[in-house]
Recover the amino acids of this structure.
């Protein structure tokens, strides 16, 4: 039986940027304050682009690098919390249209910042069951559309972008293991309250800014560090792999303080860790594939490298993955 392998990676970021100095003019904050607490210097903002367009541009890069005919793709799954449309059609269906693909499986998932890990688990299952041969997975966000730029606690964190990968049936460099989990007891700590059946669209919903991201930052920070650390320990132990055997540790890029805390607890070196939060901010489901792409384009990620992914997001959701990069 052939294994599921991540054979290519691609990413796209909008050209416009929002710097900390720009934010100083919008809310009571400073570059020094933001950098000290988050490690973020700038984030990309999509102007005149929607999530499906961001996703399509990232997908085209991954498809070109995979060296496969676009018609060989038989499924598209998109992870996003900022879809083009609240209910339907799915962002994945619009991506398929943009790529000129008809008659294939296409759907969205919502797992917040853990979205790409969930995508890996789904694609691995589809490939290894024999149901599909080439699955395009995409984490894409236009978070600027659901961020309140008068709320200092959230507007400094989030940016827009997309990352995509092709998961294919191969004989080597497989996705070794994926763990995902959730706990809805903490749902209110990181939430977009409005727009759904709990708080339907109304004038009051808009006036109370329930259509924007709301976050209890300190509580999320504490739980995130503990959960991310345990998730990595569990997957390494299950697969009898020690941290020194990992070529690259690529965590969700939410906050530099969280990344540093997890890195220290797990004894990863600076050379093992990929950190991109400073230039992109938190791009939710797009965060990990964008970081993988950066490592690839910088020459840090090579065919056959063992990479460890780790993410935590609203829901709460979390997950980790171990995989060998490249399908050749």
């Amino acid at each position: 039986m052939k294994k599921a392998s991540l054979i290519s990676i691609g990413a796209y970021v909008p050209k416009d940027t929002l710097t900390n100095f720009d934010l100083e003019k919008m809310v009571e904050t400073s570059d020094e304050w933001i950098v000290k607490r988050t490690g973020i210097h700038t984030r990309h903002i999509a102007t005149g682009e929607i999530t499906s367009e961001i996703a399509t541009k990232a997908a085209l890069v991954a498809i070109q690098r995979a060296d496969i005919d676009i018609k060989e793709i038989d499924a598209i799954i998109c992870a996003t919390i900022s879809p083009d449309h609240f209910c339907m059609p799915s962002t994945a269906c619009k991506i398929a249209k943009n790529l000129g693909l008809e008659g294939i499986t296409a759907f969205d998932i919502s797992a917040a910042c853990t979205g790409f890990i969930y995508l890996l688990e789904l694609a691995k299952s589809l490939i290894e069951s024999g149901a599909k041969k080439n699955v395009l997975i995409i984490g894409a966000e236009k978070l600027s559309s659901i961020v309140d730029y008068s709320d200092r606690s959230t507007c400094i964190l989030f940016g827009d972008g997309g990352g995509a990968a092709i998961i294919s049936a191969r004989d080597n460099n497989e996705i070794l293991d994926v763990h995902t989990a959730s706990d809805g007891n903490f749902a209110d700590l990181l939430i977009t309250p409005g727009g759904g059946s709990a708080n339907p669209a109304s004038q009051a919903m808009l006036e109370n800014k329930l259509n924007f991201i709301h976050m209890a930052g300190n509580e999320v920070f504490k739980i995130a560090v503990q959960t991310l650390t345990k998730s990595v320990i569990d997957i390494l132990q299950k697969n009898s792999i020690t941290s020194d055997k990992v070529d690259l540790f690529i965590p969700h890029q939410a906050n530099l303080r969280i990344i540093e805390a997890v890195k220290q607890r797990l004894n990863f070196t600076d050379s093992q860790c990929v950190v991109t939060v400073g230039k992109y901010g938190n791009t939710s489901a797009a965060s990990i594939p964008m970081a993988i792409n950066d490592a690839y384009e910088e020459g840090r990620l090579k065919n056959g490298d063992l990479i460890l992914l780790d993410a935590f997001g609203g829901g709460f959701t979390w997950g980790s993955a171990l995989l060998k990069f490249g399908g050749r």
